[in-house]
């Protein structure tokens, strides 16, 4: 039977929303990410270099996420970090993303991701053979905060 093992948490700082507008596939926005950090027993570090979130908002009120960035671990490894997901654009989520000072709670909105990590560093080869699922919330700043679980056998 499959089980979810808590693996790490991370934050990403949201900056620079670029509203592309409504197109044939939905309302597209690109969002710059300016750093953040990862903390867990086996994975710790910070986001470095270019990172962004391409969001496609649909009439159903959900944003389809496509996020990419690079994690630098505390011991110098680099890990490509990508995740797809769904974010329910509730009134509270949109207010916090627009600069509001009220955080959302885990479970207060549908906000789940599927992170995919990859690296050539042997110390972290386990991320190449792992499936992850994350649950998110929005914090003032704005920031996004995730709890990430690794899928494993019982």
Percent helix range = under 10%
Order of H and E elements: EEEEEHEEE
How does the overall form come out from the CA principal axes? globular
Structural class, from secondary structure content?
A: mainly beta
Please report the number of helical segments: 1
Strand content: over 45%
Spatially, the strands of the biggest sheet line up as: 1-2-3-4-5-6-7-8
Our Rg estimate from Cα atoms comes to 15 Å
Q: Which residue ranges are poorly predicted, with pLDDT under 50 across at least 5 consecutive positions? A: none
CATH fold name, please?
Porin
Number of strands: 8
Query: What is the average of the pLDDT values?
Result: 96
| CATH-scheme architecture | Beta Barrel
Broad CATH class: Mainly Beta
How many structural units, i.e. domains?
1
Biggest sheet layout: 8 strands, antiparallel, barrel
Distance between the termini: 5 Å
